[in-house]
């Protein structure tokens, strides 16, 4: 393999590495947007329930069915949010595995990626995913519990 071929191959793999890293950043930003939207939807459902229950209470009609519908809606939003969160985690794992494979196989591929290796801090971040996953699921579930509590109490 000539020097030009090696440089071309090296630059192509660096571009792949950078592209995968950029996609990983984008997917991680989606992860936080999912959480924000789930919580905003939970708040919107509680607000809608309050507005509708105020209208129904002025008519002295029973509000039990309305509350059940809104509780089911909260549960659906929560389950879908958790489902999207886990789907997003799978995408993150796939992207990270591609990056890790490129780094691990750099000697076999004959490329220079010394400046693209993850730092010790980045490797620690990768290990912290379990803590983040638990915290995110807890926030979503706590939001659902609080929302259901508010629907029942209102």
Shape: rod-shaped
Q: Please provide the count of β strands.
A: 0
What's the total helix number?
5
Q: Quickly give the structural class.
A: mainly alpha
- Kindly provide the radius of gyration, computed on alpha-carbon positions and rounded to a whole number of angstroms: 24 Å
String of helices and strands: HHHHH
Largest pleated sheet? none
Domain count, please report it. Answer: 1
Helix content: over 70%
**Overall pLDDT score:** 80
Uncertain stretches: none
**Hey, roughly how much beta strand do the residues contain?**
under 5%
| Distance between the amino and carboxyl termini | 74 Å
Plain-language structure description:
The chain has 154 residues and is an all-alpha fold. It has one domain (3-153). Helices cover 87% and strands 0% of the residues. The chain has 5 helices and no strands. The chain has helices at residues 3-58, 64-104, 106-109, 120-127, 129-153. Helix 2 (64-104) packs antiparallel against helix 5 (129-153). The longest helix is centred in the N-terminal third of the chain and has 56 residues, at 3-58. The protein is rod-shaped and about 85 Å long.
Features:
single chain; 154 residues; mainly alpha; 87% helix
Topology at a glance:
Blueprint: H1 3-58, H2 64-104, H3 106-109, H4 120-127, H5 129-153
Helix pairs in contact: 1-2, 1-5, 2-5
Short description:
By secondary structure, the chain is mostly helical. It has helices at 3-58, 64-104, 106-109, 120-127, 129-153.
